[in-house]
Amino acid sequence: MTKILIIEDETSIAELQRDYLEINGFEAEIQSSGEEGLHQALRGDYNLIILDIMLPHINGFEICRQIRAEKNIPILLVSAKKEEIDKIRGLGLGADDYITKPFSPSELVARVKAHLARYERLAGSRSAEKEKIIYVHGISIDLSARRVHIHEQEVPFTTKEFDLLTCFVKHPNQVLSKEQLFENIWGFDSAGDVSTVTVHVRKLREKIERDPASPQYLETVWGAGYRFNI
Length: 230
Ligand code: CA
Description:
There is one protein chain. This protein has 230 residues and is α/β, with parallel strands linked by helices. It is 42% helix and 21% strand. Strands 2-1-3-4-5 form a 5-stranded parallel sheet, with helices on both faces. The protein has a 4-stranded antiparallel sheet with strand order 6-7-8-9. Strand 3 (48-52), helix 3 (60-70) and strand 4 form a beta-alpha-beta unit. Helix 2 packs parallel to helix 3 (60-70). The relative contact order is 0.09. The chain binds calcium ion.
């Protein structure tokens, strides 16, 4: 059974998270103290950690850093402040995802599932049949059927949008230049130019980003190209 540890000092939030995870077939434990939560995370055999940032005595950043130093499991950081997300992203703590309070429990569950699936895939334990599906950031990409689901809802993608998305997720955390993307997806001989890439990146962001104006997943690297963050 998949075991999840929730480190959260607000009882009502922790219980809501636990209840939804349990409804979805996960085993979930709550730890309201940061210190205890850290020890439990390091000692126990959890598959995923949901970690609040604002905890008394020790903050979530430090807990995240210490868990990551020892464990290769998904860590989802929960923050009450949106601005904090940018800060924590820059810290390179090794968290896999960030959720801002208030969040919908179904969004939490979708992300938990996506991260577990991704780790499972990285560990090479997925069945051959499932390997055609890539999960990332709540997005599921079926490579053979060429269908995309975002938070479990199917979203239509054009051929080129699909190719572009696939290209990004297959090269995570790498900067891809507009020229590389154009060459890869449209080919040298095709009509159009690299500005096509810009247009398609914008369309992609409108579909996959919560706020396309300040993208979290598909970032612009000024003067270099784009990077898909995992
Ligand atoms: Ca808190």
